[in-house]
């Protein structure tokens, strides 16, 4: 691995987004509805709500963590604001945005495809206009020498599959997902090299993300098994279509430190880390780890498998591990320890770390720790595909002075460099989250901004959608140009 200034000379610097938070155009170009199109906006500590219609025609809403009534279907209330419908409108601004990414010097750009834009119902009916849109985006990226990194499915499912199949509860959805993969692998086999099958697979748990009505553990883990099988089939299929494809998994990695050296706290840390290691073990090693099988046994969970499922998992292991890193957390055996907010998790507060305005621990060294733990455990190439700092930005005379964001990235990139040069980690790229402002997945807000590029849009979806370069835009441009030597 040839290195320049600590980073490989072909290191993939870029940025990351998701269709449901960035793309917009929710009914444009033949797109069908997705589950996230029925999720209204929220706020910090104000949960986002799923709106639905019961079988008797009455309307209701639940939080994204709750079960939907049997037979309920997603419903769009014309009087509610749904952030995904416009998001920050990449659909109509993709040429402008990609030109800005090129100005920053991006080597790659991670985006997700909307399943319901390509297959409006999620079935085997293809919307050519949707495919043509993504082809235009990919061609625009390639015209600037920017490598497309494609997340095949990012936190949603076509609403039709949720309404009519109970989402990933049904094995039939495996076939539909594989059909989607065959469609895009074939269409883009000479234009895309890097793929990820599912976003943050350890956070897939409800109607919003996977279309299941019940969020009981039995339902969730059975659906997750179907997702594992679908991912493994996609890996095998992709390699058959183009052996040069690099097909990875993606996990939200939040290392859990023990609160103390008390053995009870250390063991709590082991248990918490297993919640994310489990999904990597299946996708990187090709089988369910013994600790998870024991957990299923103790919780009375039975995973229904078909005869060849285990062989499929073994044959469909991934080429690399993509992961998000925003924060670390703490594990404690003391139920009265102080709690802290986090990236879709509730954990214990680390007294040694500062926190963001949204309660997330800021821990640059934790990124190096994560890289070491993952590479030591799996010995597969790693790709930091999300990392970033949500904050409130102020526009002053047309400028956004975001020194706080620069400080965050500077510290995290420095730790990545140490992981490569001092720990021997094989790290292939870095795509900070929300390289351009987009809607927060957790809260549905716009004021929680991550981007190097500001988008004029507020929490109610009002604004000009004009793009502005923040100070961090120019800083990150210099980082890329120097291949990480200038921080």
Automatic annotation (TrEMBL):
Family matches, as Pfam families: Glyco_hydro_1 (PF00232)
Alphabetized UniProt keyword annotations: Glycosidase, Hydrolase
GO molecular function, one term: beta-glucosidase activity
Residues annotated as catalytic: 386 (nucleophile)
GO annotation, biological process: carbohydrate catabolic process
GO cellular component: cytosol
Keyword Hydrolase belongs to the record: yes
Gene3D superfamilies (alphabetical): Glycosidases (3.20.20.80)
SUPFAM superfamilies: (Trans)glycosidases (SSF51445)
Family: Belongs to the glycosyl hydrolase 1 family.
PANTHER family linked to this entry: 6-PHOSPHO-BETA-GLUCOSIDASE (PTHR10353:SF296), GLYCOSYL HYDROLASE (PTHR10353)
Designated name of the protein: Glycosyl hydrolase, family 1
Record organism: Streptococcus macacae NCTC 11558
Lineage: Bacteria, Bacillati, Bacillota, Bacilli, Lactobacillales
